[in-house]
Specification:
Length: about 190
């Protein structure tokens, strides 16, 4: 799906991906992993479910089962990005990362300036895929879980070794850093598969 297209559903299971501005490794550099888990907590408090995830140094893949919501799914994602951005900026301030703050301030778009944004943390859009079948959910989760074990990152030798992922749960049944809901147990009625 195009990244600027609004999600035309009010519930369902979606694979969501968003990245740090210019693919910078801000999540790792600013120790932003707890912020992602806090956002997951907010999602769960709202009645949604985290089905699977991998938090990479510069991007996040997460599968979320959204219950029926009056708030658009795009707004829910935007609010999460905003929440994490504030936390990452606070980390920069605590680290006295003046050079990085200046660089990220220079990346703020014209639209962001009009909205009084001071730093660009995330790319403005995100990618989403509607996950309407268990086979497609498994395909996306397998992709997530292999992410840390390939390409330039090589963060682990095997998916289950990477801490910031749901791979351990799907391989062994043991919950990892953040507990997830198995995609096979999602209620068709509650999440509109």
């Amino acid at each position: 799906m195009p990244t600027h297209q609004a999600i035309p559903f009010d519930r369902g299971v979606f694979s969501i991906t968003f990245t740090c501005i210019e693919w910078r490794p801000l999540i790792a550099q600013l120790q932003g992993y707890p912020l992602v888990y806090q956002w997951f907590d907010v999602l769960c408090q709202q009645g949604h479910a985290v089905v699977g995830y991998v938090i990479m140094p510069n991007h996040l893949h997460v599968m979320i089962a959204f219950k029926q919501t009056a708030t658009s799914i795009n707004s829910i994602i935007g609010n999460g990005k905003r929440f994490m951005a504030y936390g990452l900026v606070k980390s920069m301030q605590q680290m006295n990362a003046e050079k990085l703050m200046s660089e990220l301030a220079a990346q703020v778009s014209v639209a962001g300036q009009l909205s009084k944004h001071k730093h660009a943390i995330w790319e403005p859009s995100f990618d989403w895929k509607h996950c309407s079948t268990p086979a497609f959910m498994k395909q996306k989760l397998d992709y997530y879980h292999l992410n840390p074990c390939r390409g330039k990152w090589m963060l682990a030798n095997a998916p289950v070794e990477y801490r910031h992922s749901s791979a351990l749960y799907y391989a062994t049944g043991q919950q990892g850093e953040y507990p997830v809901v198995n995609y096979l147990s999602l209620s068709d009625m509650e999440f509109g598969q």
